[in-house]
Design a protein that fits this description.
By secondary structure, the protein is an alpha/beta fold. The protein contains ten helices and ten strands. It is 38% helix and 27% strand.
Amino acid sequence: MAILEIENLYAYYGMAESLHGVSMKLEEGEIVGVIGPNGAGKSTLMDSIMGLVKTTGSIKLEGREITGLDSSELVNAGVGYAPERAHLFPYMSVRDNLLVGAYTARNDIEKNLELVHSLFPVLRERRSQETATQSGGERQMVSLGRALMTSPRILLVDEPTIGLAPKICAGIADALVRLNKETGLTILIAEQNVNFAMQLASHIHVLETGSVAVSGPTEELKSDPELAKAYFGH
């Protein structure tokens, strides 16, 4: 059984339709990438899964219909979310921002803190620092760490590399791969940085103007010359 199954998903901002019949599956323990240009609907897809926009269609988590649940119920159900916009509390410390994510997994606080600090050692060093004074890369680490503090079954990561230097992107990629391999966590990544997504994901979905244009195993898509030229830069 797929851990996450999306069928014929439409999303709306007011009367405007932003996603048009999107369907995809994630198997447990898989990293899947959703790629496409700015405005393709990647963030809308993530927000739709989290119940933050009006949708029709079906979204199932481990066979359970979750369409219509609010975001707090989805976090309780095991969905962690590190949004592009981060939404950190700028004048709270790194540690306190992480602990905000622990309200649904209070029995796992120390275990999850140790996991976050092992993935991002700088957050242990900067645990008393206000996030407003951190670099963009460090704030992205806090956002990912806060999502992990919820003890998720599946992690949604929206544009984790936006505005970051290549060295920082490589560190985040390494952390996500390690997280997947060591804990078996299923990860869905929405990325405009196609090479980053291709490096991590075993399966890719290409979004164009709110619809899935093509999808398949990453290696197969890379071998298609037209897709490689259009989306992978070679």
